[in-house]
Amino acid sequence: MINSTHSPRREKGAVTLFMAVIVLALITIVAFYTTRTVLFETKVQANNLRAKQAFEASEAAHSYVLNVLNDTADNKEQLADIDLNDDCYRSVNGEDWYDLKCRANVLGWPDFTYSANVRLDTVTVSGGSDEVDRVNIIGFSEDTRAKHYIFQTLVQERPLPNAPLTPITAKGGFIVQGSATVYNPEGVSTIWSGGDVDLTQNASSSTFVADPSYNVNAADGYPACLDESMTCHMVTTSTQIAAGPDIIEFDNNLKNLSDEELFEHFFGFPMDEYVDRFATIELDVDAGDEVSSINNATGEVVYIDAGSGIDIGSSDLKTVGCSYDITGVNADNNGGYLPSETCADSPLKPTIVIIDGDVSFKGLPVFYGILFVKGELSGNGTPAVEGAMIMTGASGSTGSVDVWYNSNMLQALNDQGDFFGLSGGWRDWAN
Question: What is the spatial distance between Cα 427 and Cα 431, in angstroms, rounded to a whole number?
Answer without folding.
Answer: 14
